[in-house]
Automatic annotation (TrEMBL):
Protein name, UniProt field: Proteinase inhibitor I4 serpin
GO molecular function, one term: serine-type endopeptidase inhibitor activity
Region named Disordered: 28-87
Record-annotated Serpin domain positions: 96-456
Pfam families in the cross-refs: Serpin
Family as reported in the entry's similarity comment: Belongs to the serpin family.
Gene Ontology CC, one term: extracellular space
PROSITE patterns cross-referenced by the UniProt entry: PROKAR_LIPOPROTEIN, SERPIN
Keyword annotations of the record: Signal
């Protein structure tokens, strides 16, 4: 098979997941602080009924004066143990299920969407290390049916791979923020050590006031290369802990676009049937694939460790119906069959997406962690009530142009104490109408980001 790479792309993918914990019951010292509906939006997703709101301006990360007192002194342990095929298959199933559950409503409404299955798994995975019983079992089910030990091993390997890549810039950061009130919540040392050694998560004690709010947003901003300037709008009185993931990926296309491959006034037909004037990028690629209702291609980033995977539904196939029938096996078959030359075009596009994921995760079977009877006793001791998840906030951003792609995601889990085949003929896949895409890890064929484009100018 002949692969021809005619573009150079800078792909910045950023993801952050923040888990906020709540505990039920009366609440009242720990240490010093470190200084539902999806929509296309550039504003932050946040909590309702705020008690603490951000200052008018958020300090730049290098200006933030955080008095950090980590709760764990262990070191992160790198891993070279590659996840097995069963985990990769489970991860693809989880990704497809998360994508269609969270995004179906907005895709049907004609909105652009993007989520990061990787970010969500990192944050939920960290949180699951503090869960027991049915609470843990349901979280494992949502994460592809793999046990928490398998999830930990896989995430440890993938983080090591991401951070040590010499062909792309990939930052992955995790953190745990705990209310400075030991009568309300006291984190268990074993949990803090576990998430540090596996997820490299620093644990901070904080007063959960405006200083903390700004520190959290600054931490996310810094670790998403300034693409997610804020992830929280407020801190509620009932919030006692946040578990946060942030990711930033920057990669170049294997080959750059020449001026002759860029058309300034091309057309894209959106989901409403309206024509939009767009800048279109043309090239020849070597990763063509197809099935009964899909044509698509892989476009590699420098080093070929990651690729942009474009899936164009057959003419006349509604994109919402297409996504509704997507599963991990389909993703795997398309990825594995990629091969053969194909002429392609990709429109330049950019958009933001935000969604509160609690109802979606419940629909996937994760109800117990959101209940007052949830068991997070391996994470922390609480003064007079149980600890459970209040919200899971997810925000993303993507830009794709002739130079590359910038993508960002931030997910907040709020814990509270309140109640390949060769083509015989030359193929063409022109993304000039609604399409689905993913940024995939080519070693395992698993998506780091997944999205759908219904409109370019909307």
């Amino acid at each position: 098979m002949k692969n021809i790479y005619l573009k150079r792309t800078i792909c910045t993918a950023l993801a952050g997941l923040m888990i906020a914990l709540t505990s039920c019951g009366n609440v009242s010292e720990q240490k010093e602080s470190p200084a539902s509906t999806g929509k296309n939006t550039s504003s932050s997703a946040g909590n309702a009924d705020p008690t603490t709101t951000p200052d008018d301006t958020i300090a730049e990360p290098d200006e933030t004066n955080m008095s950090v007192k980590p709760l764990s002194e262990v070191s992160h342990e790198n891993s070279d143990e590659t996840p097995d095929d069963s985990f990769n298959a489970a991860y693809r199933n989880y990704s497809a299920e998360l994508f269609k559950t969270t995004c179906a409503e907005d895709i049907k409404a004609g909105n652009n969407v993007m989520i990061s299955p990787e970010s969500v798994m990192l944050a939920i995975g960290m949180t699951a290390n503090g869960a027991k019983g049915e609470t843990l079992s349901q979280m494992e089910t949502v994460l592809g049916g793999q046990g928490i030990d398998a999830v930990n091993k896989a995430m440890q390997y993938r983080m090591t791979k991401f951070m040590n890549s010499d062909t792309v810039n990939f930052n992955v950061a995790n953190s745990v923020w705990v209310l400075d009130d030991s009568e309300r919540i006291k984190m268990k040392q074993e949990f803090c050590d576990k998430v540090k050694s596996v997820y490299n998560a620093d644990s901070f004690i904080a007063p959960f006031d405006n200083t903390t709010l700004n520190d959290i947003n600054s931490w996310v901003n810094k670790n998403t290369n300034n693409m997610i300037p804020s992830v929280l709008d407020s801190i509620k009185e009932s919030d006692v802990a946040y578990l946060i993931n942030a990711m930033a990926f920057e990669g170049e296309w294997a080959e750059k676009y020449e001026d002759a491959q860029v058309r300034e006034d091309d057309k894209f037909t959106n989901s409403k049937g309206e024509e939009e004037k767009v800048k279109m990028l043309y090239s020849e690629e070597g990763g063509y694939f197809e099935d009964e209702n899909t044509t698509g291609f892989l476009k590699y980033y420098s080093g070929h460790d990651y690729a942009f995977m474009a899936m164009l539904p057959s003419e006349g196939t509604d994109i919402a119906d297409y996504v509704a029938n997507m599963d991990g096996e389909k993703l795997s078959n398309l990825w594995q069959s990629a091969g053969g030359s194909v002429d392609v075009c990709i429109p330049e596009f950019s958009y933001d997406y935000g969604r509160e994921l609690s109802d979606d995760l419940k629909a996937m079977g994760m109800t117990a962690p959101f209940d007052e009877n949830a068991d997070f006793s391996d994470m922390a001791e609480t003064g007079s009530g149980s600890l459970f998840i209040d919200k899971v906030i997810h925000k993303t951003h993507i830009e794709l142009d002739r130079f590359g792609t910038k993508a960002a995601a931030s997910t907040v889990v709020v814990m509270t104490d309140e109640a390949c085949l060769e083509a015989k003929d030359k193929k063409q896949v022109y993304l000039n109408r609604p399409f689905v895409y993913a940024i995939i890890d080519t070693e395992s064929g698993t998506p780091v980001f997944m999205g759908a484009v219904n409109t370019v100018n909307g």
